[in-house]
Each structure stands twice: as C-alpha cells, then as structure tokens.
Amino acid sequence: MDWITHSYMGRRGVAKGHAGREHQLTEAKQGAYRYVYGPYAEPVLHIEPGDVVVAETQDAFEGKLKTEQDVPSEVLNMPFVNPQCGPIHVKGAKKGDVLAVYIRSVLPRGPQPAGTTALITEFGGLVSTGTTAMLNPPLPERVKKMIVTPEGVQFNDKITLPFEPFIGTLGVSPEIEAVTSLQPDYWGGNMDLPDVAPGAVVYFPVQHEGAYLYVGDCHGRQGDGELCGVAVEMPATVTLQVDLIPNWAIPGVRLETEDFIMSVGSARPMEDAARMAYRDLIRWLVADFGFEESEAYFLCTQAGKLRVGNMVDPKYSLGASIKKAYLG
Amino acid sequence: MDWITHSYMGRRGVAKGHAGREHQLTEAKQGAYRYVYGPYAEPVLHIEPGDVVVAETQDAFEGKLKTEQDVPSEVLNMPFVNPQCGPIHVKGAKKGDVLAVYIRSVLPRGPQPAGTTALITEFGGLVSTGTTAMLNPPLPERVKKMIVTPEGVQFNDKITLPFEPFIGTLGVSPEIEAVTSLQPDYWGGNMDLPDVAPGAVVYFPVQHEGAYLYVGDCHGRQGDGELCGVAVEMPATVTLQVDLIPNWAIPGVRLETEDFIMSVGSARPMEDAARMAYRDLIRWLVADFGFEESEAYFLCTQAGKLRVGNMVDPKYSLGASIKKAYLG
Amino acid sequence: MDWITHSYMGRRGVAKGHAGREHQLTEAKQGAYRYVYGPYAEPVLHIEPGDVVVAETQDAFEGKLKTEQDVPSEVLNMPFVNPQCGPIHVKGAKKGDVLAVYIRSVLPRGPQPAGTTALITEFGGLVSTGTTAMLNPPLPERVKKMIVTPEGVQFNDKITLPFEPFIGTLGVSPEIEAVTSLQPDYWGGNMDLPDVAPGAVVYFPVQHEGAYLYVGDCHGRQGDGELCGVAVEMPATVTLQVDLIPNWAIPGVRLETEDFIMSVGSARPMEDAARMAYRDLIRWLVADFGFEESEAYFLCTQAGKLRVGNMVDPKYSLGASIKKAYLG
Amino acid sequence: MDWITHSYMGRRGVAKGHAGREHQLTEAKQGAYRYVYGPYAEPVLHIEPGDVVVAETQDAFEGKLKTEQDVPSEVLNMPFVNPQCGPIHVKGAKKGDVLAVYIRSVLPRGPQPAGTTALITEFGGLVSTGTTAMLNPPLPERVKKMIVTPEGVQFNDKITLPFEPFIGTLGVSPEIEAVTSLQPDYWGGNMDLPDVAPGAVVYFPVQHEGAYLYVGDCHGRQGDGELCGVAVEMPATVTLQVDLIPNWAIPGVRLETEDFIMSVGSARPMEDAARMAYRDLIRWLVADFGFEESEAYFLCTQAGKLRVGNMVDPKYSLGASIKKAYLG
Fold first, then answer.
1. Band of pLDDT at residue B303, cut at 50, 70 and 90
2. Residue D328 has what pLDDT?
3. What region, left, alpha or beta, does residue B250 occupy, with left being phi > 0 and alpha being psi -120 to 50 degrees?
C-alpha cells in the first residue's frame, strides 16, 4: 500500500516499511500460550526489523467455550485466560525505540461457529464487578456462538453484522513487570480497541531489550466499549509486519492509518483515559506537525475524535484521533 | 423527509410529524435570555404540537468575546453565561409525555467572524478546574475568532474544517428545579453532543406542565469531548419542529435519525454516563424491538457506538447508539 | 463556649459570635416544607445576624415510612423527598459574604421509634443506581425503625450505637438556581457529613441577598459514606445560632470546631471531592495561617484528615481537615 | 498482647499467634532490593509459620534524596523506586491460604534527618499526572528533610507532629504477575494505609506457593490520602511476626486490631475502592458474625468508618472498618 511509504514506519523504520522474511508462529511452534506481558518468558521466535509474522492465536477463552451449553464459571480458570502468542524477540530493539506493527490481516480459523460471546459473572460494563462492587444479584451466565467468516458475523437468525476484525490484545513487554494479558497499559496489551485492525500501523514504546512482542485475543467485530466484556471472540490467523523505529520517545501507544493518527490512553476513570489520549495527541501535533500548543488544543476541540475501545478491562482504553487532512 | 413518517414523532406524535404554524422567536421577542432550565420563568412563546419555531440564539458568551484581544475573565460574569431562548410552552404537555424536537436547520447569523473558541481559566478537559482541582498554574487565557459559513469553519490560514452545526444546549424544564444552562441532565440541557444536529429528532421526558422548551448555544462544529470546553460557538438561527408524544415513559434524552437510535447519559465519572446511555438503549431494544435483555446486551456489545459529547461540563454527556439496520 | 470567641464567627461576625433573639420555626410556622435550595421561595422567617433559630425539621421521608412494613417505592413520591425548613432571610447578607451557622443542638422529636433507615431501589453506595446503571436485579426494599434518644440508637436487640447527631442537609440558596435538596454543592445542601454536628460552626458562601438559609434531614448517627444512602433519619429540633461575616470570599463550605478546621468538597468521582476539599484547605492555610503553598501541601500530606460524608448522593461530599494544634 | 490470642491469627494460625524463631533480614542479607511484587525472584529468606522477621527497609527513594538540594528528576530512575525487602518464603503457604502478618514495630534507622518528603513532577493528588493528564505547567520540584524519632516528626521549626509509623508497602506475590511495588492491589503492595501499623495484624490472600512476602516503604507518619504522594519516608527496622491461616478464602487484604476489623479496597475511581472495601466488610460480617446481609449493610451505613490510605498511587487504597464493640 502506497501510504505506508509515507507513514512513520515507512519513513523512520529500520526496514523503511519493506517486508522481510516471513515466519510462521503456529500453535505447535508457540507451544504453551502466555498469560502475562513480561520479560520473564523465553522468546518463541526471533525476528529482524521488517520481518512478517503469521501467528495462530487462540480466542480469549482458549477454546474452552465450545457450545452454548458451557458454563463459563465451570470451565474457565483465572488467571489463565486471554492466552497470547509470544514473546517475539525483535533484533536490535531497546528501551527508547518504538516497535511498529503493521497489521496486514486478521482471519478466523478453526471450526465454525468460530465466534463466541458470553456473560461472565462479575465481569462487564453493566454489571457489578470485583471493583465496581455491588450487592445486587448477578445476571445468569450465558454463552452465545456465532458463525464468523469474512462475509459477516451471524449474530442470530435475523441479524448479520459486518465482519470488521481486529486484534484485542497486542503489545510489548514492560521493563520489569509481568502484567496479566487482561490489562491494557502504555505498552499495549488488552486495549480492545477496534482501530487495531488490518490496515493500521501500531506503535509501541519498547521497554525491554528485544521488545518482546505479544499478540492474541482477536475479534470478528466489536461495538464501542465492548459492553458485556466479551466481543466476537475468535481464534485467528494474524499477519503482522514488524519494524523498528530507533530513538522515538513516545509515552504510550500510537496508531496510524492512511486517514488519521491516534493516541491511546488506558486508565480509570474513563475521563483519565480520554485525557491521556488527547494530551498525547496534542503533544504529537506540537512535536511533529508545527502546531503551537494552544492551537493544537483548539484543533482537537473542534475536530478530534474519541473512540471508546473498552469500558470493561482493568483499565479502560480510549483512542483520540485526528484526520491527517486537518493537519494543514 | 420520508423517514420522519416512520419515526417515533411521525407515528406517535400528536401532530403525526406534520409541521404546523411557524413562530419567530427573535431576539426582540425573547427579551432577556435565560441562564437556568426551570419552571420559574414566564414562557416567551406558547405553541401547539406540530408548530415550528425559528429562534435567534446567542452564542455561549452572549457575544461578549468580540475580538481575539478580549480577556474572558474580564468580560464574563458567572453564572450569567450560556444564554438560552425560552421557555416555550407547549400546549397539552404534561409529566409522563415526551417532547419531540425535530431539528430542521442551524445556521450562523450576525457579523463575521461569527465563530468563537477560547481558553477559559479553570475550565476545560485538559486543565485543572474547580472540581478536578489542582495546584498547577493555569494556562494563559486566549480567544480565537473564526469565520463560519455553510461552506466551512476557517480554523486558521491553512485549515478549513467542515461546517457541521448542531445545538449545544436544548431541553425541557425539570419539575421543581432550576438548573444552570451549563449542566446537562436527564431533561437535556448542555449536552454538547454533536448528534443533536439538523436531521435528528430529539426526545425529552416532560417534567412540567407545558414542557418549557429552552434552546441555545449553537456550534459550527465540534470534536468529540469538546476538549477545551469551548466549541465553535456562534449565534444562530435555529429552526425546530416540535411535537408531543403522550404517555411515553423514558428516563432521559433519546434521539433518532434516519439511520440510528441513540440514548444519552449525562454523569460523572464518564463511565457512568456510558452506563446510563447503554442501559437505556438496551431497555429500549427490549421494550420496542422484541429483544430479550441478554440478546440486546450482546448486540450492543458487538454493534453499539458511543459518542462522547462533552468531557468538560458539570456532567459529561455520552450517546450510545445502534443502527436501525441492525435491529432485525 | 470559650473557643467560639476565637472562631472566625467570633472574630469576624457582625454579632461577634454573641447570641441574639431566638426564633421558633415550628412545623406550623414553616407550613409547606421545601424540596429545593433556591431563591424562588418566599422566606418563612426574617432574622438578624446573631439570632438563634429553633427549627422543627422533618425526617428525609417526611414521616411517610412509619412502620417496617411500609414499602418505600409505594409511599415516596420523587422529587418530593428530603423536606427542608426555610428559607430563612438573614438581614444584610449579600453575595461575597459568608453565613456562619453555629450548631448548638440537634435532638430527636416526635413518637418513637424516631429513627428510620431503609433500602431504596436504585439508591445506595453498593447497588446499581440511575447513574451507576447496571442490569443486575435490585435488592429487596426494606425499612428498619430504631428508637433514638440521647442515650443511644437501638440498632437491634443486641446492638446499641452512640447517639452522635448531626444535620444532613444545611446551606444557603444558589444565586439563580433552585437545586434539589438531595444534592450537595458549594452552597451546602445534602452533604450528609457527620462533622456538621453540635459544637461546629459551618461557613457558607452567600450567593443571594438575604442568604436564604435552609435546614433539614437530621441524623441520629451515620457511618462514613452513608453507605446504603439512608442514615438514622429522624425528625428533630435543631438549634442554630446564625451570624454574618462580611466580605469573606470562600469557594465552598468550610467548617470549624474547637480542635480543627475543615474544607468540604462535593463532586464525582470521589477523588475530585477530595481534591476540592484539600485544595481549599491548602489555600486557607496560605491565606490565613502564613504558610507557603508547598509547605501547606506537605503539611496536609503528613497531617491532613479526610472524612467521607456521603458516597450516595448526586455529588459525594468529603471534608479535608487539619488540627489547629498543627498550624504552628 | 492478650487480644492476639483472640485474633484470627491467634485462633486459626498454624502457630496460634505464638512467636517462633527470629530472622534478621539485614541490608547485606537482602542484597539487591526488589521493585516488583512477583514470583520470579529467588527468596532471600525461608521461614516457618510463627517466625519473626526483623527487616532493614530502605526509604521509597532508596536513600537517593539526601539533601533538600537534591532534584528528584535528576537522581531517581524509574521504575527503580520503592525498593522492597523480600521475597520471603513461608513454608507450607499455598493458594487458598491467608498469610497473617502481625506488625510488632516500625522504627527509623540510619542518620538524621531520616525523614524525606518531596514534590515529584507529574506525581501527587493535586497535580497533573501521567493519568490525570493536564496541560498545566508543573509545580517546582522540592525536597524536604525531617528529623524523625519516636518522639516526633520535626516538620519545621514551629511544628512537630506525632510519630505514628506504619508500613507503606507490604504484601504477597501475585500468582503469575510481577507488579511494580508502586501499585497496591488485592495482594497488598503499595497501599499507603496508615492502619498498617504496629499493633495490627494484616491478612493477605496467598496466591503462590510460599506466599513470597515483601515489605518496604515505611513512613514516620502520613495524613489521609498521602496528598502530595510522598509521606514522611524513612529507612526503617521493621519487626514482623508471620503466621499462616490455612483455607481462608478472602478476596483481598483484611486487617485487625484490638478494636476494629477492616477490609481494604484498591481501585480507581476512589468510590470503587470504597465499594470493594465495604462490600468485603459486609460479606465478612455475614460469614463470621452472624449478620443477615441487609442488616450488615445497615450496620455499616450507621457505624462504618472509611480511611483513605492513598489517593496518589496507580490504585487508590481505602479501608472500611467497624468496631468490634458494635458486632454484638
């Protein structure tokens, strides 16, 4: 794609946005999946900037919710959920660099119905949870299976929704922490942000030698906020082109498509995630696009967009974006 | 427009969505503008269901920020900001009914530059305020004027943004309260939600005999969140077609366009506004579209949209919506 | 009491803290109780600085929950709850002044059991509400009656709690708003803060000519946060000594006892209420006690106290205080 | 102390609350301090239930802020702050058990002035931070040193505050995560809660074989909320008696003194921490003290206390408590 040439990855990446060698990260190659983002696991793959990784991800339940009769509380075993492929070691990556991940495709794999959503006790945006702790009785558990193909998500007999796949959990390792793959943070992780989709380049601030890229938790589609906490979860084949941008100090995750740039904030309460995202976007406009700070603040006020990724995970993730066409 | 026939207003309104008599609510007719949404002011206009009102609104600063040299803290006099037209008495409206307001047009009026944005001390989404109270020094005050026409908003010499006007503050009176026009709530008010735009029908739960409709605070355009607290404020000519739907119990503001239905929540922290909006949307799907509750919860999870109206007012306003095409 | 001589009321009040004429504000004299704090009602009493008011308040349910068999949702009629005595007009009070209210006593009145607590649907700190809107089923409604005397609150057969009465709702009118008596704000109102108790002087920033003092909603005692939303509600006889401090610009409610000074913040989320309270306390230390700002910030860090008044009302109220003994 | 016999530790601990062998965990024995709570480090000490550990903790800055002329941003190196002693392996501890830690003493050690507080850029309860991200300019950095002895904390020339020491950071390892020692959570960590003080027994839910106890970050005293983010930090000698309670399922940290029991919640926003704490306290009353749930809810409403530990760390920590005397 042409715009990639002019993207940050194309202009500043070690591989200039060119694809290198392709690696297959199959289930067999992965072996045990990972449940934390951290530096303590041995890499399952070593790649160089520019290399392409084709990874076989599991769904967030590691395939344990097989039928609509399954009961989540009986088959899931916390904290062993949201399994991740990785870590993938990227040669030369070090703290202070940025890992660029160009998402080339996300496709469902495995038997149909490939898609799963569910009501999990004490989890979700509209129920009492372990943190927004209430005394109200819980809702009944429920599992819903959906056929998911590139032609659509068969929500039920009457409703088919567009297939708009993306990666729920993607990022690099923290420096010394190992954090549950359920949590998003400045290094990425479980952002559940639908913009992390084919066609986007996502930028992560490297914290640890080799970056240690993780990926998992693909979704066939999702509404804003991932309301009940469980999107159209599916096992997937994910194709990622990875590049390395040396010496780019960014405080958190950034993202770029042909049309817009976006900063991501992950925090609670939700307004703090919005503040993080917008402040970083303003600083980005000042640093790279010649804006005076108050002018950038005004521009985001009049033309910024907010995307609510999730309102259910340990931190909520929001993306603040602005169209490239508005940047003068 | 054809879809109006099939809207709630068209199907259940007293006037069946048909336009009645047109009323001019000029500056002269309005006289003193209003700074609270409440039942204690005398109506400036009495209308019947179906009537059309053409109102001359002031900008949020009542025109006091005339040049970029004006200093907000010197010319503004709290709490006398965000002046409103109204109240407009709607014949037959009573508690338990819904006032339907079909927005036909919002156009800038008065001399150019008609648009104003500003940095106001202790106000905005990315600064210390009276509630998110910090010890950090404030940003300098600043006023920015912009030419606003239907062809666009001239943000600066290099950037012209699309003209996408809407009404920042619109609603009905609470039952016994009189609340600052700076605040949004279940009766409407200062939602600063860009979907309250030409082409939409907005539904308000009537609290007081005659509904007491207020309108003001139009914007030439605005980004999600109204980040610095001040959109492209402009004096405007607003054309509203008002109808009355008897006996429709809704807990807060709802909205409808040709393509989607939306519930609005206003609260802090932001996740509570999102919860309010989504819960009402789910209950709407259950009550009117035949969904079982968990199925509606799943559908909003996979296909709901969240619009962050404002993240700066006394309550944040978010709209949760779903496409009519997805309702089966 | 001696310390009153050295209080703000004693030093700067028009009446120098001396008690003047006593007024009886009986149920009969009050007539209709009030459900908003606002300037639109006619005063029921006119007093002068220094005067003492003995008011007969109703409980928050206006006595409608008479037995443990009563069902709140059947007998309560929103928004007509939390009835208030007042408004009381204080001669000479104007915007920019402070109304000082010295609470001399709060005693239960009427037949026993005088105390009532209850579980109200969609209300309380540990249940789904209209704002923290969940889909979980509600808890059953329940009413609990308790004998309340100066000797104690008979919680049940086994447990008697100390009688530690205070005023749940107390304050002055906003300038142009009329706000439900359920809400606390910078003018006071429904703070539900146990420090608003006999022996304290509470300071309110006057917004409207005559101040328009309101009082109601007394509690026999309450834990921090008023967890289920309903304290030991009781009808009471309240004795207040009212004074006027001219030209004291305070941004919200302040409070003083013999031992400490306190600033009150009311906001959501709860950290914002804490920030408001602590920031005002720091500014108070700087303005009146000779502290440099960072030194005051350090002192509050090491010696400040936070009292969570309520975590259930439309805004949460917290008091930040510091012992007078620590002020050097 | 007699009450220990009747405490949970005394009644249900493997060692019945009796002190066993004493271990010295000196600086030399500790070697490198730890910056995460996790299972990936090798234990520095192996103990048995009942054993006593005397640990030499560093202050939160590892002694790098030596004078008031030091500049935090120049000498601190994130994330290597808040150094911890440990992990300490407790024989027999396994997931599903509770580690009981009886705090016998916390005494300052090292040269005077032993106490340090500071203003750190982008950190604190009343300033813009990385999460509550504002555009306002920061406050100047500042370091303040204080002499700290059991006789008092010399805040400045005029003010001496009581010595009321406690442990800021204490807890066990998560199961698979390794989390920064700056963060509190259900396993303990950086709660900065002044009740974690000599005379208290703190209960932690074991997640990992051997429990892996960590301790550090002692404070000479602290106000509620730890407002600027930095208490009276001091290197300390800490004496802990550790016991093990098999098969006690608790969802987070609990605490007991002679007079009260307390549940701790750590979350953002602050009301969620309060909800977690109070809900657990109610469930505790139901499980162990014979209360029906609504009766426990009422009792906490009328007699519960909330302590705001910190309002500055990645999660805020609050303790909800009730006097043992009120439990009938």
1. very high
2. 82
3. beta
CB D104 within 8 A of CB D198: yes
Q: Is-contact D273 D254, C-beta < 8 A?
A: no
Q: Which of residues 268-297 of D touch B (CB under 8 A)?
A: 269
- What is the DSSP secondary structure assignment for residue C42, as one 8-state letter? P
Per-residue tokens: D84: 């911890």
Is the four-CA dihedral D245, D249, D255, D260 of positive or negative sign?
A: negative
Q: How far apart (Å, rounded) are the C-alpha atoms in residues B306 and A123?
A: 20
Flag whether A140 is in a domain: yes
Question: In the predicted model, what is the mean pLDDT of residues B68-85?
Answer: 97
Instruction: Give the Cα separation of A94 and D235 in Å (integer).
Output: 34
- The Cα–Cα gap between D229 and D231 comes to 7
Torsion C60-C62-C63-C65 (CA) sign: negative
Per cent of chain D over pLDDT 90 is: 99
Range of the domain at C162: 3-249
Restricting to A residues 37-56, those with a Cβ less than 8 Å away from any Cβ of D are 38, 40
Residues whose CB is less than 8 angstroms from the CB of residue A78 and which lie 6 or more positions away in sequence, other chains included: none
Distance, C-alpha A19 to centroid of its chain: 21
The predicted-structure confidence for A10-53, as pLDDT tens digits, reads as follows 999 999 999 999 999 999 999 999 999 999 999 999 999 999 99
Residue ranges of chain C whose pLDDT lies below 50:
none
Question: Which residue type is seen at D59?
Answer: D
Is the pTM above the cut of 0.95?
yes
Q: What is the mean pLDDT of residues D117-134?
A: 98
Task: Judge whether D228 lies within some domain.
Answer: yes
Q: Has residue D43 been placed in a domain?
A: yes
Amino acid identity, position D173: S
Q: Is the model's pLDDT at D1 over the cut of 80?
A: no
* Separation between Cα atoms, residue D314 and residue D269, nearest integer Å: 10
Inform me whether the pLDDT recorded for A328 exceeds 90.
no
Domain tally, chain D: 1
Residues of D in contact with B128 (CB under 8 A): 128, 134, 136
pLDDT for residue B204 is more than 70: yes
C-alpha distance from residue A35 to each of A210, B198, C113 (Å)? 19, 49, 57
Q: What is the DSSP letter of A69?
A: T
Q: Where are the alpha helices (DSSP H) in C191-303?
A: 270-289, 293-303
Query: How far apart are alpha carbons B148 and B107 in whole angstroms?
Result: 9
Q: Does B153 touch chain A (CB under 8 A)?
A: yes
Q: A79 preceded by cis ω (within 30°)? A: yes
pLDDT value, residue D254: 98
Distance, in Å, from the CA atom of D13 to the CA atom of D23, rounded to the nearest integer, reads 19
3-state secondary structure at position C166: strand
- Report yes or no: B120 at the A interface, CB cutoff 8 Å: no
Q: Answer whether C156 touches D (CB < 8 Å).
A: yes
Q: Is residue D132 classed as helix, strand or coil in its secondary structure?
A: coil
In a domain, C213, yes or no: yes
CATH number for the domain that contains residue B104: 2.60.120.580
Check residue B1 and give its pLDDT.
53
pLDDT digits (tens, 9 = 90+) for C85-99: 999 999 999 999 999
The overall average pLDDT reported for chain B is: 98
Identify the sign of the CA torsion B280, B282, B285, B286.
negative
